[in-house]
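Project outcomes to date are best conveyed with an example. Our students and postdoctoral researchers have been running inverse folding experiments weekly, and each run begins with a structure described purely in C-alpha cells. The record below, which covers 215 residues, was selected by the lab manager from last quarter's runs and is presented without edits.
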C-alpha cells in the first residue's frame, strides 16, 4: 500500500514538473535577481563612499575665472594686502587644495576651493582688496555671487551672500569696504548657516585661497 502511494506521489510530481517545472525555475531566478539587486543597493551606515578617480569641482557657474572648472592649483600670491572678509567671523571649511571632501547635499566628492566665514545674519562682508566689482549674479547652487577685480588682475569670488548687496557692477571699492551681508546657500554648504564662501585667484587664474586671512 505504501509503495503504491509513493508511486502515485512520484507520478503526480513528475506530471507537475513536466508541466510547470520551467515556470517554477524561472520564478525562482527572478526572485534571486530581485533580492540581490535590493541588497546591493542598500546604503551602508558604516562605510563611507569611496572617493572617485576623476576629480570633480562644484563652483558657481558661469564665472569669469577659468580656473574654477580646472581644479585647485595653489600659487604664490602677488604682493597685495588682504583684508579679513568678515570681522569677528567663525572659521568654517578651509581650502582643500587638490584634496576632495564628500558633500552630503550633492552626494558627491568635490574640491573646496575657498574659505568659509561663519557668523550671524546681517554681518557685513568686506572687500579683501581695493578694486572694482566685476560681476554680480545668482547661482542655483551658491546663491548670490560677486567677483572683485584688483588693479593687478587678482580676482576674489564671494558666494552665499544675502540678496541685499551694497555695491553694483562696475563700482569701485576700497579695501575693507562693505559689499553685502552673510547669506545662506540654497544648496551647497547649506548646513553651514549664515556664512560667505570666499575664493582668491591670481591674474593667471591660479588659486590663492590658502592665502586668505583667517579669523
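After processing, the design step wrote out the following sequence:
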Amino acid at each position: 500500500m505504501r509503495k503504491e502511494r509513493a508511486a502515485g506521489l512520484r507520478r503526480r510530481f513528475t506530471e507537475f514538473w513536466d508541466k510547470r517545472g520551467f515556470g517554477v525555475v524561472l520564478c525562482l531566478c527572478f526572485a534571486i535577481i530581485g533580492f540581490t539587486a535590493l541588497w546591493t543597493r542598500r546604503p551602508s551606515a558604516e562605510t563611507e563612499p569611496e572617493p572617485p578617480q576623476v576629480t570633480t569641482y562644484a563652483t558657481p557657474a558661469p564665472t569669469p575665472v577659468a580656473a574654477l572648472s580646472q581644479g585647485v592649483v595653489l600659487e604664490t600670491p602677488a604682493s597685495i594686502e588682504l583684508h579679513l572678509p568678515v570681522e569677528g567671523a567663525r572659521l568654517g571649511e578651509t581650502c582643500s587644495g587638490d584634496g576632495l571632501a564628500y558633500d552630503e547635499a550633492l552626494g558627491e566628492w568635490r574640491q573646496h576651493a575657498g574659505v568659509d566665514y561663519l557668523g550671524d545674519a546681517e554681518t557685513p562682508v568686506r572687500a579683501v582688496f581695493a578694486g572694482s566689482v566685476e560681476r554680480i549674479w545668482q547661482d542655483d547652487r551658491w546663491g548670490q555671487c560677486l567677483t572683485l577685480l584688483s588693479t593687478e588682475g587678482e580676482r576674489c569670488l564671494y558666494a552665499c551672500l544675502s540678496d541685499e548687496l551694497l555695491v553694483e557692477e562696475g563700482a569701485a571699492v576700497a579695501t575693507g569696504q562693505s559689499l553685502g551681508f552673510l547669506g545662506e546657500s540654497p544648496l551647497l554648504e547649506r548646513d553651514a548657516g549664515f556664512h560667505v564662501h570666499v575664493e582668491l585667484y591670481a591674474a593667471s587664474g591660479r588659486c590663492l585661497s590658502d592665502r586668505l586671512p583667517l579669523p
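Confidence is low (pLDDT under 50) at residues 43-48, 51-78. Helices lie at 2-41. The training component of this project remains on track.
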